[in-house]
């Protein structure tokens, strides 16, 4: 394993490239950190071979570590390439693509916890139903397997995802939330999926992501994994804290060192970034 002995051996890194972080809102900061956490968790793989991660990593190595800006550019470039491709098609085919211009207008908002069912998912469910023999159809007849019509899709497939309908017009938000709270423990018990242990990130930890310059520090740690090398703590400190900050190499290692202690918390699998608590 190669040892990096000097900041000169890390030509791509400039702490000034991370000045944008000081202007980020808490939400945008956590988005930036969340993408770093994904890169870090995949640091031992070839990031350039994973489409979205390669977008982030190419930008970071080229001195443009603002992943939100990188995403916007990626989508803009893809739109431009697609529009240029459409222009090469016959006129009737161009009209067909133009009629689908607002296709994403029909997509409801979603996140990692809740995602409304897409048409493609319904098609996938149909395939699974046929594979399991619940529904059969050929030229002469079709039938459903006995006692399956009222079965829950998720229970039949032994998934850890519950596909459900939410009646927006007949119930208030509070009623829907209360109903979910009542059914969630029953669903978990029936499907044998225990509730994961999570801890929400604290406001003090969010502020320390900026103060301790965690994002540029993580970029260097990800790079270590990519090139199978080790960056000594003194070199890390020289890169990330070059202006005489109170943080130094002694804060980067050991259980009581404030930077390494924060990193251990932030990189924990059970830490959720979806809600900021005011606890200290």
Helices and strands, with pairings:
Elements: E1 2-3, H1 26-41, H2 51-61, H3 67-87, H4 91-99, H5 119-131, E2 135-137, E3 142-144, H6 153-157, H7 173-191, E4 199-202, H8 203-211, H9 214-227, E5 229-230, H10 233-240, H11 258-266, E6 271-277
Parallel strand pairs: 1-5, 4-6
Antiparallel strand pairs: 2-3
Helix pairs in contact: 1-8, 1-9, 2-3
How would you describe the overall organization of this protein?
With 280 residues, the protein is mainly alpha-helical. It folds into 2 domains: 150 residues, no CATH class; 83 residues, no CATH class. The chain contains 11 helices and 6 strands. A two-stranded parallel sheet has the order 1-5. 13% of the residues are buried.
Provide a brief overview of the structure:
With 280 residues, this protein is mainly α. The chain has helices at 26-41, 51-61, 67-87, 91-99, 119-131, 153-157, 173-191, 203-211, 214-227, 233-240, 258-266, and strands at 2-3, 135-137, 142-144, 199-202, 229-230, 271-277. The mean pLDDT is 85.
Record field, number of beta strands = 6
Question: In which order are the strands of the major sheet placed?
Answer: 1-5
**Major sheet description:** 2 strands, parallel
Question: Structurally, how many domains make up the residues?
Answer: 2
């Amino acid at each position: 394993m190669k040892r990096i002995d000097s900041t000169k051996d890390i030509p791509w890194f400039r702490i000034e490239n991370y000045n944008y972080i000081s202007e980020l809102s808490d939400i945008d900061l956590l988005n930036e950190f969340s993408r770093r956490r994904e890169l870090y968790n995949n640091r031992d793989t070839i990031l350039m071979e994973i489409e979205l991660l390669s977008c982030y990593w190419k930008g970071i190595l080229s001195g443009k570590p603002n992943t939100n800006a990188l995403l916007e550019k990626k989508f803009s470039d893809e739109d431009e390439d697609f529009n240029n491709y459409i222009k090469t098609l016959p006129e009737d085919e161009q009209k067909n693509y133009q009629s689908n211009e607002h296709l994403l207008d029909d997509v409801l908002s979603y996140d990692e916890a809740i995602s409304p069912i897409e048409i493609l998912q319904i098609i996938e469910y149909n395939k699974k139903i046929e594979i399991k023999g619940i529904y059969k159809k050929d030229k002469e007849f079709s039938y459903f397997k006995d006692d399956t019509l009222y079965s829950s899709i998720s229970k039949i497939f032994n998934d850890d995802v519950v596909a459900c309908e939410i009646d927006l017009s007949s119930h208030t938000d509070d009623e829907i939330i209360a109903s979910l709270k009542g059914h969630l423990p029953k669903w978990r018990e029936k499907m044998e999926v225990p509730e994961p242990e999570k801890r929400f990130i604290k406001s003090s930890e969010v502020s320390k992501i900026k103060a301790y310059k965690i994002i540029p520090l993580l970029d260097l740690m990800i790079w270590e994994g990519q090139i199978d090398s080790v960056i000594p703590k003194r070199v890390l400190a020289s890169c990330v804290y070059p202006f005489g900050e109170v943080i130094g190499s002694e804060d980067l290692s050991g259980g009581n060192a404030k930077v390494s202690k924060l990193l251990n918390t932030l990189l924990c699998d059970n830490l959720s970034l979806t809600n900021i608590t005011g606890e200290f």
